[in-house]
Amino acid sequence: MRTEWWVVVAVAAALIATTVVLAGLLLVRLVRTRRLLRDAGIPVENKVIFWGALIYLASPVDLLPDPVLLDDIGVLLLAVRSLQAAAVSAGVARRR
């Protein structure tokens, strides 16, 4: 193979590895967030942001093409962070 192809393969492998790592992180945070959603005291707008991010994940409209899930993961991580901050300020969860 030519050198250019090896570069393309390496970049594709790096993107796939990054996506897998971020998806694993996201899965852990989604499980924790689901528990937070069941607790009382979290403002409704933060719950709406979280569910809106989940809808964005399933939506066919994306900032980046679908094989690259970095935009979807980023939107969900921001929503989870917003929900976690609201839970901390409401006294539902403690900051780590």
Give an overview in words.
There is one protein chain. It contains three helices and no strands. The chain starts with a helix and ends in a 6-residue tail after the last helix. It is elongated, with a radius of gyration of 17 Å. The protein is mainly α. α1 packs parallel to α3 (70-90) and α2 (44-58) packs antiparallel against α3. 15% of the residues are buried. It has one domain (3-90). 75% of the residues lie in helices and 0% in strands. InterPro entries: DUF1232. Keywords: Membrane, Transmembrane, Transmembrane helix. It holds the Pfam family DUF1232. The chain crosses the membrane at residues 6-28.
Q: If you average the pLDDT, what whole number results? A: 78
Report the radius of gyration as a whole number of Å: 17 Å
H/I helix tally: 3
User: Major beta sheet, specifics?
Assistant: none
Count of DSSP strands: 0
SSE succession: HHH
- Uncertain runs are none
Helix percentage range: over 70%
Q: Provide the domain count.
A: 1
Distance between the termini: 48 Å
Based on secondary structure, the structural category is mainly alpha
Beta fraction: under 5%
Given the C-alpha coordinates, what overall shape results? elongated
Concise structural overview:
This protein is mainly alpha-helical. The chain is built from three helices and no strands. It comes from Streptomyces lunaelactis.
Structural features:
mainly alpha, 75% helix
What is the element layout, followed by pairings?
Elements: H1 3-38, H2 44-58, H3 70-90
